[in-house]
Amino acid sequence: MTSPTRTAGTTLRQPVTALLVDDEESLRRVLARELTEAGLVVVEAVNGEQALQAARDLDGQLDVVITDINMPVMDGMEFARSFRPRYPRVPILFITGNDLRTSYALGNGVGEDLLLKPFAPDVFVDAVLRTIKRSTQSGRTSA
């Protein structure tokens, strides 16, 4: 039995599926573990190209995307621009240690939220859940 996903006053559809995109393996594993412990199903990708394939493989069963901005092959910005037209209802949370391009990303409507590295695991999980909650409240649903 799946434990309820912790949120600030909102019950989310179960299971909640997150696509986590980051090329830094050690960080990605820690973040995936934190999300799993919070009750989410996590699919991991190392770059935007792999993330687009993972989104297609999930076939509409995706509730949130968390992506780093700076990655090789296809960075988070390119990924978001390719992902958004295909999956307009899935919220995107950008994570980055460099905020030089973030205002551009958020200002052009490809992402909903931004979390600057470094951050504590509980801050990360809360940011992901807030992103999902806001999306749910604004009428967005899964892909």
Task: Kindly describe this structure.
With 143 residues, the chain is an alpha/beta fold. It has a single domain, classed as Response regulator (Rossmann fold, 3-Layer(aba) Sandwich). Helix content is 41%, strand content 18%. It has helices at 25-37, 48-58, 76-86, 102-107, 121-137; strands spanning 16-21, 40-45, 64-68, 92-96, 113-116. The chain has a 5-stranded parallel beta sheet. α4 (102-107) links the parallel β4 (92-96) and β5. Mean pLDDT is 83; it is low at 1-11.
Determine the fraction of residues in helical runs and give it as a percent range.
40-55%
Low-confidence stretches: 1-11
User: What is the ordering of alpha helices and beta strands?
Assistant: EHEHEHEHEH
CATH class: Alpha Beta
Quick summary of this structure?
With 143 residues, the protein is an alpha/beta fold.
Question: Which SSEs are present, and which pair or pack?
Answer:
Blueprint: E1 16-21, H1 25-37, E2 40-45, H2 48-58, E3 64-68, H3 76-86, E4 92-96, H4 102-107, E5 113-116, H5 121-137
Parallel strand pairs: 1-2, 1-3, 3-4, 4-5
Helix pairs in contact: 1-5, 2-3
